[in-house]
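Progress report, Aim 2. The chain analyzed during this reporting quarter is listed below.
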Amino acid sequence: DHTGAQRSLADYRGKVVSLFFGYTQCPDICPTNLLTMAEVMRQLGQDAERVQVLFVTVDPERDSQELLAQYVPAFDARFMGLRGELPATEAVAKEFRVFYQKQGDTKGQAYTVDHSTGTYVFDPQGRLRLYVRHAEKPEVIAADFRKLLAGQ
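Predicted structure tokens for the chain:
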């Protein structure tokens, strides 16, 4: 994670977990997703303490632990940025069937990354329950999270 600790989904058992794959230099999708999740947390009030938002970088070459530690919590201090070396990133992306591919100046640092835009949501028992499409309204997501927190 962005503090240097090794993490797995089991670390968040007992919470609803929102898992999104992106990168810090994304011009639109990623910051929009994180802003939406920050609004979801605000709408949840005290229940937000039982939710963990995870942002997994698909660009570990540029997204260092330090950069993730600055970027991700800027949206909400409870959010956690995750990164692995390239082989680990590839393995996790494959496991979740996440598409990502560098575009543009792939030999330099001025590239962009096309990537999947949905969010995976796990219930407090660690079961995958939802796939939230990009641009879903915060109130819809918050309502879904409340149901998962209530055991539905």
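The CA atoms of residues 85 and 124 lie 28 Å apart. The longest helix spans residues 29-44. These observations will guide the mutagenesis work planned for the next reporting period.
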